[in-house]
């Protein structure tokens, strides 16, 4: 599962140890702080404790209110999970002991298990292979930038969108991730980072899957990640990508969150885009651009257009001119992020040379488009999205998804 030129490290950075037994009479442990432990109270809660990583503090409080617990318990448990990385009730030492025992008896909150970590020895990019409770595998990738640590989160197991250049879609969509499984990716990586005194500062929902096809869970995850009692990541440090699901772009605009939308353009015209990205047959570029214009007007946020450069497919100078014309129709400042294609063995494409990438970028700039070329992080590990997962599935004798 691990490329020969990469480094795999053991999955260290487990959950912080319990702070030890709580002394009798410790704050919050007094008799009468709630009816925890009373036989007459039902043990069933509105949401199973195993799924609590996907709840906001007020929802945790509402669940515990059925046991007569005060509303601040929700915030306490949320902070233990999302700020401190603790998911064992027994270790949540500011909860009454009896409540801890009672919650633990129902089962601790569940987060993905780290199955492997690949580390690029030169740029520090870490790719985590995570196993979900039902045995499904996903990837999450941590990248180091000058401005902070950015985590690229998966939103689905597999992907239905069928983009021709992508490894994540080769076996189709298996299922959506829950908000708990998305928040769990952030939680376990932050737990890992805590060992060296670091935390994730930026989120991109751009890993395996089409996040807008799983919009409710994605929005819930963003709210959890943003909450000041948890990871506290600014909405302005969050980016959600889409291959171009027009109705969901409009719905996202209505949410009014000041996040960045990243639209995967990847082609200069409908003919080529429909060939590379089947979603374009349903929502062609004119409709996509209408939705983008509306998004910018409603949110006041700039859209980033992602463009994977594939040699001789979409990287010629005339393609750059067409892209500039398409984006000029948006009537405002636009930003294009060029991404030299990361080779995937199952795909018959070639990555362009640095000269071709620079020529494409220069052609866009000459036409007034803001351009960045994405630094190729993780080149010494399997950098393309979905490759590590596919390798693990193949090793387990299941290359189907
Ligand atoms: S590029 Fe994104 S939307 Fe397209 S198939 Fe891959 S994961 Fe899905």
Report on this model:
This protein has about 400 residues and is an alpha/beta fold. It has 2 domains: about 50-105, DNA polymerase, domain 1, CATH 1.10.150.530; about 115-395, Aldolase class I (TIM Barrel, Alpha-Beta Barrel), CATH 3.20.20.70. It has helices spanning about 55-65, 70-80, 95-105, 180-195, 215-225, 245-255, 270-275, 280, 285-300, 315-330, 355-365, 385-395, and strands at about 5-10, 115-120, 125-130, 135-145, 150, 155-160, 175, 200-205, 240, 260-265, 305-310, 335-340, 370-375. Helix 1 (about 55-65) packs across helix 2, helix 4 packs parallel to helix 5 and helix 6 (about 245-255) runs parallel beside helix 9 (about 285-300). It is globular and about 70 Å long.
The major β-sheet equals: 11 strands, mixed
Bound molecules: iron/sulfur cluster
Specify the CATH class of the largest domain: Alpha Beta
Judged by helices, strands and strand pairing, the structural class is alpha/beta
Looking at the overall shape, the CATH architecture of the largest domain is Alpha-Beta Barrel
Strand % is 15-25%
Total discrete domains: 2
Q: According to CATH, what is the topology of the largest domain? A: TIM Barrel
Helix segment count? 12
What spatial form do the alpha-carbon principal axes imply? globular
CATH H-tier superfamily of the largest domain: Aldolase class I
Low-confidence stretches: 1-13, 17-40
Main-sheet strand order equals 1-2-3-4-5-8-9-10-11-12-13
Give me the Rg, rounded: 23 Å
**Residue-averaged pLDDT:** 87
Number of strands: 13
The helix-strand sequence is EHHHEEEEEEHEHEHEHHHEHEHEH
**DSSP helix fraction:** 25-40%
Cofactor: [4Fe-4S] cluster
Region (Disordered): 1-44
Binding site for [4Fe-4S] cluster: 159, 163, 166
GO molecular function: methyltransferase activity
């Amino acid at each position: 599962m691990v490329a020969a030129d990469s480094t795999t490290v053991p999955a260290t950075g487990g959950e912080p140890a319990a702070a030890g037994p709580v002394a009798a009479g410790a704050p919050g442990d007094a008799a009468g702080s709630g009816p925890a432990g009373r036989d007459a109270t039902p043990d069933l809660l509105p949401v199973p404790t195993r799924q609590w990583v996907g709840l906001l503090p007020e929802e945790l409080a509402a669940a515990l209110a059925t046991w007569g617990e005060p509303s601040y318990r929700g915030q306490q448990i949320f902070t233990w999970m999302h700020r401190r990385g603790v998911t064992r009730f027994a270790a949540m030492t500011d909860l009454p002991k009896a409540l801890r025992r009672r919650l633990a008896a129902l089962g601790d909150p569940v987060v993905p298990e780290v199955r492997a970590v690949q580390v690029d020895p030169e740029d520090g990019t870490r790719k985590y292979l995570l196993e979900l409770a039902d045995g499904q595998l996903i990837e999450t990738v941590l990248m180091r930038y000058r401005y902070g640590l950015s985590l690229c989160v998966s939103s689905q197991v597999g992907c239905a969108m069928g983009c021709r250049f992508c490894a994540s879609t080769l076996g189709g969509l298996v299922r959506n991730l829950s908000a708990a499984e998305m928040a769990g990716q952030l939680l376990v990586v932050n737990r890992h980072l805590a060992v060296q005194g670091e935390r994730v500062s930026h989120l991109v929902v751009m890993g395996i899957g089409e996040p807008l096809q799983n919009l409710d869970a994605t929005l819930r995850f963003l709210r959890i990640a943003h909450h000041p009692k948890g990871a506290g990541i600014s909405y302005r440090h969050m980016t959600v990508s889409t291959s171009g699901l027009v109705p969901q772009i409009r719905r996202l605009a209505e949410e009014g969150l000041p996040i960045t939308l990243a639209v995967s353009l990847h082609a200069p015209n409908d003919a080529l885009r429909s060939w590379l990205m089947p979603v374009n047959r349903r929502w062609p570029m004119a409709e996509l651009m209408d939705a983008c214009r509306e998004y910018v007007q409603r949110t006041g946020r700039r859209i980033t257009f992602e463009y994977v450069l594939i040699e001789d497919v979409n990287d010629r100078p005339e393609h750059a001119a067409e892209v500039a014309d398409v984006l000029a129709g948006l009537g405002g400042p636009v930003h294009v992020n060029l991404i030299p294609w990361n080779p995937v063995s199952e795909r018959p494409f070639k990555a362009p040379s640095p000269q071709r990438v620079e020529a494409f970028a220069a052609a866009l700039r000459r036409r007034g488009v803001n351009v960045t070329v994405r630094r190729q992080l993780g080149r010494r590990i399997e950098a393309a999205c979905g490759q590590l997962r596919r390798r693990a599935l193949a090793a387990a004798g299941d290359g189907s998804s």
